[in-house]
């Protein structure tokens, strides 16, 4: 099989959110598969802000950086078109770490790859509620945050994919839920459509003062997707023995140099807080445990996720940019 | 009874470690006890760095600040000389939040106060191994740090009272223990006398590089007494899923303005760390659980604590200063 494959490479390290300048679309002829590899026709590219870290050359990241000139990688959903791996055959639907390309060449024994069940016809569901974002929201609320009924739960990037699900999961568990998001429209959506008890527009409000007003007994669980000044505003308002579940630190991903930690870091001692990071690849293997819990919430109407779909491989850099500019509500994907 | 009582007051807020200028020794005639109060002849004043926070007017502290002109407070050991509280009688030995004075007036129903058992003739033991420092070391190692045999354990202010006990407790649990202390003499003591596997002189060494050399598999538990640059050096060297048990943040206590948090804060996410503060008053009530465990270690020769004794109430400000200038090894007390 001699097939053309368009693929995005990391042409240079992105500065800030300059992804259009950092990525380049190239075309190759696919090489023959090696033993143990599969060829996946990509159908959905999952846009995830954590991928930003792979674009740096930092050695203290959770994943090795992508070398300049190499293909950009991320979670993809697709269909196997050719297999030299015994566990996969043509026609299988898979979720894997693939390439931002028409086709992904994947070595399932060396990288994340899993076949999909038949529960959902719509492939996108497997990077939404029933994928890493859903599992992350679940773990952050239930395990890292240990949110209990009656507690006050605050989440940042609350209209984003993980934040929106985290807020709904916390609400379903009986928490009072406050979301922090950018813009009045998103805030309205959170309270009117998704059952949040309150929302703070960080672009317009004094977040620390609003948290104090909306959380008079303090924040028991802060689910953080952003770090930076909003983390500080939350730390200033934590309840005794509160938990900060650190899901993402978008502020840090984009920084060029060292970023000071939160100025209210000493609240970890003053309030006896627990600040804990968590990272979805650590619990990918627990998918069979998470999905039924998430499906139960979805069936009860307690967990919904809108998609922000871009179409065509060319749209990838613009779609990725949305994650950082606050342009999206829910899960951003590129459909091919 | 008309008795003169010398007592230290907070004459002004200390700047840095200028305690001699901030404290003033005054004399009063003791007022008659009110119902519910006891009068304690102070025998031992416990010097604790956390007391520094009570001397600020910060509202985000773990304890309300001491008003200017008010008596300085802290943990004292003494003997009841007069009682208007049913649970106490003259002659009882007590540990309580008292005043830095010849006599403490204490209201046991409103403040920490407890009678002492007969296990130790030497009163000092009740603010050493069998007091808040011992319990703090135990909780930080066993519970907050969750140190397990075979893990690498690092403690800062390792020659101080809590740090020295934390290191020994971790060692007794089978950890590899590295201490960070100021000066070659202290470092020698840690490794030669107290069984530490290694020690780093932060005044002479590049702490981050030395931690990398001494902890090639990363730090599993960092027991932090200081914060600041040493916390950053530790964060840069944590192992995946490491725990940072935040016992004290001396760097922050002394700061006049907001202090940036650790520059390596993002390691909480990159390494999936747990950073957790703990504070001994939360577990004072668990004394009956802790002391037998600590006594068992002491009986086995695995837990020893030297005292740095100053004599006479006049010596208090100089004794307190030792906690912050690195002049002490082990527990600093003032004996009256």
Automatic annotation (TrEMBL), chains A, B:
<dbReference type="InterPro" id="IPR045010">
    <property type="entry name" value="MDR_fam"/>
</dbReference>
<keyword id="KW-0560">Oxidoreductase</keyword>
<dbReference type="Pfam" id="PF00107">
    <property type="entry name" value="ADH_zinc_N"/>
</dbReference>
<dbReference type="InterPro" id="IPR020843">
    <property type="entry name" value="ER"/>
</dbReference>
<protein>
    <recommendedName>
        <fullName>Enoyl reductase (ER) domain-containing protein</fullName>
    </recommendedName>
</protein>
<dbReference type="Pfam" id="PF16884">
    <property type="entry name" value="ADH_N_2"/>
</dbReference>
<dbReference type="InterPro" id="IPR011032">
    <property type="entry name" value="GroES-like_sf"/>
</dbReference>
<feature type="domain" description="Enoyl reductase (ER)">
    <location>
        <begin position="18"/>
        <end position="334"/>
    </location>
</feature>
<dbReference type="InterPro" id="IPR041694">
    <property type="entry name" value="ADH_N_2"/>
</dbReference>
<dbReference type="GO" id="GO:0016628">
    <property type="term" value="F:oxidoreductase activity, acting on the CH-CH group of donors, NAD or NADP as acceptor"/>
</dbReference>
<dbReference type="InterPro" id="IPR036291">
    <property type="entry name" value="NAD(P)-bd_dom_sf"/>
</dbReference>
<dbReference type="InterPro" id="IPR013149">
    <property type="entry name" value="ADH-like_C"/>
</dbReference>
